[in-house]
């Protein structure tokens, strides 16, 4: 049986809880009273179960009256004999505050005392079923001296009390300063009261018939009136002011806090058994037992507010409308009895804080890790690659530096610095030349030879240049290379192809020359589409200019610069067919000692000085020999070696000398030359030619002599009639130059050959 009841109770409780959570309510204006009942008296709300009038209150214990005659209207409870005023009412706390008059006893002064029966009045709750004196909020207070105040319950038993006394005026200074709110025994005492107190009778001990001992200490000072009453503790500790007079019988009413409850059943579980009588009417309400004995009260469930004692009295709280109270500053959704709160989309954080929702970090941790790792990996790969490239580049730079040093770049640079002006000569970088030639593209090739390839290049400043990229270079050459470069760079002659610079960062240095537009002399005279006619004057001029250039090279420096490979392919023609001797890159400084004598024979077949072939010693006369061959080519328009002829006549030189011996050399000359040239001229030029190609180097004239003679012949060819006057001038100027250049030996008689018109024989 007992277990069944328990089960039932449990089920009932569960059902109530379930109802509390889930039952839907129609949210209505939260009414506090039954329909047709006043819910206000003055400024005090009167919620059900209280009611003004018998019909409106739950029972007579909750019945109130409203005295509308007073201003403001006064709410009165009917539970007390004197119908004291009710000044506040709270459903949630289960509290009511009433004003009650204290019990007082006033004695007239002894001399005026006619009777010892004091005036008396007291107030109490007469066995109320609704109210109890709140033990937490009320105190028993006795005022006046001497006063032993106490209260007794309905059956006359002592409940609580305290003793208040005053100092004897004769024994001490009664003017000690008093502090307000002190109720510690002197003139005022207080005591706590037990719970469940709903009735008391105040009492005061009569000191008139006391003993002497009592007289002495306790009856020291007397006050006309003494009081004993219950009062709210905040009143006695803050409002009470003991400088008040203790001679008033009409002591003002004091506030007393009452706990109210539905007390017709013992507890909630008992109350729920009688559904018609159960006070917690609202479906969204819950019942709880009072702590001061019999009774229960009702509350709205969590998330609801209103009056639980009325049907539908508890309504849902829209928490979203009160963010401060419910701590939702995010996106709020109200639900019955609750709400949800989240930070707005795209934000996260503490929505209970006004600025708690912050823009979301859209990067989840996992993604961060993945990103971090991949960035790290990428960076390290990149770093490795970069490092590798850096090392490669360093290696390249080191290689370049090595070549640069090996090729004498340092010395060259020093010489350029110490040797004064650079005359536009500069050291190029590999990249510069690569850019200039489109990375040595094949369409930039100007010519290919045994030594290397010549490219046409355009520098960044739009200068057109010819870049000679040699195939290889002898170890011995590299040693002298820088010095030679330097000397060549100093040369500035209009008939010498200017060396603009070099690039030393490669194994075999590249040379950068000025670009000469009209190709080689070789091409000019032996080209595939040969010029139909080349005037003798042009031929003489080209010869004279070339000779002048070589002569300049031989005489301008010490030791002299030897070309070593004079041939028609090394004489270039510019746009006005001016001759420019090129390829001094392969040239040599005249050896200064035995050890420097070249060990390798250089030059081109057909042009080689036979003496050089035998001695391996290149001299300025070797160039003269080679130049002789060039002159021969110019006059005969035949190649130095023509491989299609009969075996003994393949060399132009031997062919010519053979013809010379039999006096048929004229037949070898180009027909145009034969036509244009006078007999004297032919004689003169043949004489010069034969001297140049003499087997014996010492018999050959110097380059300077050749140059001057050619120049004279050219002038003669141009203006044979002005020869006489010109000659004198010429000689004069030549003599003048001789003084400047002591090395030069002018053979004056040679100048006069023409005038004398002699015939010459040659020893071969
Ligand atoms: C309560 O008051 C009534 C009159 O209102 C009285 O008859 C009754 O004796 C009182 N009860 C007590 C316990 O004082
Ligand atoms: C009481 O104290 C006041 C000032 O403190 C003093 O003037 C007065 O004489 C004292 N009276 C007695 C009886 O000691
Ligand atoms: C005080 O005592 C006297 C006699 O000693 C008596 O007559 C009087 O009634 C007593 N007064 C009270 C209030 O008990
Ligand atoms: C106490 O009462 C006296 C006279 O009524 C007044 O002068 C004094 O200011 C009061 N003290 C306090 C703290 O209320
Ligand atoms: C109360 O005492 C004051 C002086 O302290 C006096 O003026 C007043 O008349 C007294 N009132 C009564 C009813 O004794
Ligand atoms: C409620 O009161 C009844 C007696 O009326 C008692 O048997 C029961 O145990 C009480 N329940 C609680 C929860 O106090
Ligand atoms: C329930 O309460 C009402 C009124 O309070 C009463 O009339 C009725 O007898 C009670 N029912 C039971 C079963 O206690
Ligand atoms: C959220 O903010 C409130 C108010 O600033 C604070 O009391 C609470 O501790 C915070 N909660 C968290 C989880 O930080």
Automatic annotation (TrEMBL):
<keyword id="KW-0812">Transmembrane</keyword>
<keyword id="KW-0067">ATP-binding</keyword>
<dbReference type="Pfam" id="PF07714">
    <property type="entry name" value="PK_Tyr_Ser-Thr"/>
</dbReference>
<dbReference type="Pfam" id="PF13947">
    <property type="entry name" value="GUB_WAK_bind"/>
</dbReference>
<keyword id="KW-1015">Disulfide bond</keyword>
<keyword id="KW-0418">Kinase</keyword>
<keyword id="KW-0547">Nucleotide-binding</keyword>
<dbReference type="InterPro" id="IPR000719">
    <property type="entry name" value="Prot_kinase_dom"/>
</dbReference>
<dbReference type="InterPro" id="IPR008271">
    <property type="entry name" value="Ser/Thr_kinase_AS"/>
</dbReference>
<protein>
    <submittedName>
        <fullName>Os02g0811200 protein</fullName>
    </submittedName>
</protein>
<keyword id="KW-0732">Signal</keyword>
<dbReference type="InterPro" id="IPR001245">
    <property type="entry name" value="Ser-Thr/Tyr_kinase_cat_dom"/>
</dbReference>
<dbReference type="GO" id="GO:0030247">
    <property type="term" value="F:polysaccharide binding"/>
</dbReference>
<feature type="transmembrane region" description="Helical">
    <location>
        <begin position="365"/>
        <end position="391"/>
    </location>
</feature>
<feature type="domain" description="Protein kinase">
    <location>
        <begin position="440"/>
        <end position="722"/>
    </location>
</feature>
<keyword id="KW-0808">Transferase</keyword>
<dbReference type="GO" id="GO:0005886">
    <property type="term" value="C:plasma membrane"/>
</dbReference>
<keyword id="KW-0472">Membrane</keyword>
<keyword id="KW-0723">Serine/threonine-protein kinase</keyword>
<keyword id="KW-1133">Transmembrane helix</keyword>
<dbReference type="InterPro" id="IPR045274">
    <property type="entry name" value="WAK-like"/>
</dbReference>
<feature type="signal peptide">
    <location>
        <begin position="1"/>
        <end position="31"/>
    </location>
</feature>
<dbReference type="InterPro" id="IPR017441">
    <property type="entry name" value="Protein_kinase_ATP_BS"/>
</dbReference>
<dbReference type="InterPro" id="IPR001881">
    <property type="entry name" value="EGF-like_Ca-bd_dom"/>
</dbReference>
<dbReference type="InterPro" id="IPR011009">
    <property type="entry name" value="Kinase-like_dom_sf"/>
</dbReference>
<feature type="binding site">
    <location>
        <position position="469"/>
    </location>
    <ligand>
        <name>ATP</name>
    </ligand>
</feature>
<keyword id="KW-0325">Glycoprotein</keyword>
<dbReference type="GO" id="GO:0007166">
    <property type="term" value="P:cell surface receptor signaling pathway"/>
</dbReference>
<dbReference type="GO" id="GO:0004674">
    <property type="term" value="F:protein serine/threonine kinase activity"/>
</dbReference>
<dbReference type="GO" id="GO:0005524">
    <property type="term" value="F:ATP binding"/>
</dbReference>
<dbReference type="GO" id="GO:0005509">
    <property type="term" value="F:calcium ion binding"/>
</dbReference>
<dbReference type="InterPro" id="IPR025287">
    <property type="entry name" value="WAK_GUB"/>
</dbReference>
């Amino acid at each position: 049986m007992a277990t069944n009841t328990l089960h039932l109770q449990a089920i009932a409780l569960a059902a109530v809880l379930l109802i509390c959570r889930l039952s839907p309510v129609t949210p209505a204006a939260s009414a506090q009273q039954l329909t047709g009942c006043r819910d206000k008296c003055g400024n005090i709300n009167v919620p059900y179960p209280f009611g003004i009038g018998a019909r409106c209150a739950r029972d007579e214990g909750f019945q109130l009256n409203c005295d509308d005659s007073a201003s403001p209207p006064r709410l009165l409870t009917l539970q007390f004999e004197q119908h004291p005023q009710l000044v506040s009412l709270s459903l949630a706390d289960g509290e009511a505050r009433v004003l009650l008059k204290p019990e007082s006893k006033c004695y007239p002064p002894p001399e005026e005392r006619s009777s010892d029966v004091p005036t008396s009045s007291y107030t109490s709750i007469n066995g109320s079923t609704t109210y109890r004196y709140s033990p937490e909020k009320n105190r028993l207070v006795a005022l006046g001296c001497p006063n032993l105040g106490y209260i007794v319950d309905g059956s006359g038993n002592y409940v609580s009390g305290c003793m208040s006394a005053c100092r004897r005026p004769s024994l001490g200074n009664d003017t000690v300063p008093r502090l307000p709110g002190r109720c510690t025994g002197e003139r005022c005492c207080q005591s706590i009261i037990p719970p469940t107190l709903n009735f008391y009778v105040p009492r005061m001990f009569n000191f008139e018939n006391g003993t002497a001992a009592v007289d002495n200490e306790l009856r020291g000072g007397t006050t006309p009136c003494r009081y004993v009453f219950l009062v709210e503790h905040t009143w006695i500790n803050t409002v009470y002011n003991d400088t008040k007079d203790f001679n008033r019988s009409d002591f003002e009413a004091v506030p007393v806090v009452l706990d109210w409850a539905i007390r017709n059943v013992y507890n909630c579980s008992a109350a729920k058994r009688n559904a018609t009588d159960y006070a917690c009417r609202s479906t969204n309400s819950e019942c709880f037992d009072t702590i001061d004995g019999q009774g229960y009260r009702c509350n709205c469930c969590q998330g609801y507010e209103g009056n639980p004692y009325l049907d539908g009295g508890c309504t849902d709280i829209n928490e979203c409308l009160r963010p401060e109270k419910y701590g939702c500053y995010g996106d709020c959704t109200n639900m019955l009895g609750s709400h949800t709160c989240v930070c707005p989309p795209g934000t996260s954080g503490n929505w209970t804080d006004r600025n708690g929702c912050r823009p979301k970090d859209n990067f989840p941790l996992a993604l961060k890790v993945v990103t971090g790792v991949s960035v790290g990996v990428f960076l390290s790969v990149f770093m490795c690659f970069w490092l590798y490239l850096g090392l490669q580049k360093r290696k390249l730079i080191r290689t370049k530096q090595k070549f640069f040093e090996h090729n004498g770049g340092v010395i060259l640079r020093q010489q350029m610095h110490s040797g004064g002006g650079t005359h536009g000569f500069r050291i190029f970088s590999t990249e510069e030349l690569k850019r200039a030639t489109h990375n040595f593209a094949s369409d930039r090739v100007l010519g290919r030879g045994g030594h290397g390839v010549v490219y046409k290049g355009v520098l960044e400043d739009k200068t057109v240049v010819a870049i000679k990229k040699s195939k290889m270079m002898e170890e011995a050459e590299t040693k002298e290379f820088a010095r030679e470069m330097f000397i060549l760079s100093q040369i500035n002659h209009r008939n010498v192809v200017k060396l603009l610079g070099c690039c030393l960062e490669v194994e075999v240095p590249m040379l950068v020359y000025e670009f000469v537009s009209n190709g080689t002399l070789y091409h000019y005279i032996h080209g595939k589409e040969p010029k139909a006619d080349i005037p003798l004057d042009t031929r003489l001029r080209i010869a004279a200019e070339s000779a002048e250039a070589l002569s300049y090279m031989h005489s301008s420096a010490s030791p002299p610069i030897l070309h070593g490979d004079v041939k028609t392919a090394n004489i270039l023609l510019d746009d006005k067919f001016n001759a420019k001797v090129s390829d001094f890159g392969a040239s040599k400084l005249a050896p200064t000692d035995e050890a420097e004598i070249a060990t390798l024979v250089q030059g081109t077949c057909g042009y080689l000085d036979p003496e050089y072939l035998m001695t391996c010693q290149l001299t300025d006369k070797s160039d003269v020999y080679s130049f002789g061959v060039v002159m021969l080519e110019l006059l005969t328009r035949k190649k130095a070696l023509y491989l299609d002829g009969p075996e003994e006549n393949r060399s132009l030189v031997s062919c010519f000398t053979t013809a010379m011996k039999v006096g048929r050399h004229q037949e070898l000359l180009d027909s145009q030359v034969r036509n244009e040239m006078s007999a004297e001229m032919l004689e003169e030029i043949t004489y010069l030619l034969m001297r140049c190609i003499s087997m014996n180097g010492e018999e050959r004239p110097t380059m300077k002599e050749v140059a001057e003679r050619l120049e004279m012949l050219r002038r003669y060819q141009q203006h044979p009639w002005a020869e006489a006057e010109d000659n004198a001038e010429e000689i004069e100027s030549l003599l003048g130059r001789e003084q400047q250049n002591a090395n030069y030996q002018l053979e004056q008689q040679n100048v006069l050959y023409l005038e004398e018109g002699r015939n010459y024989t040659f020893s071969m």
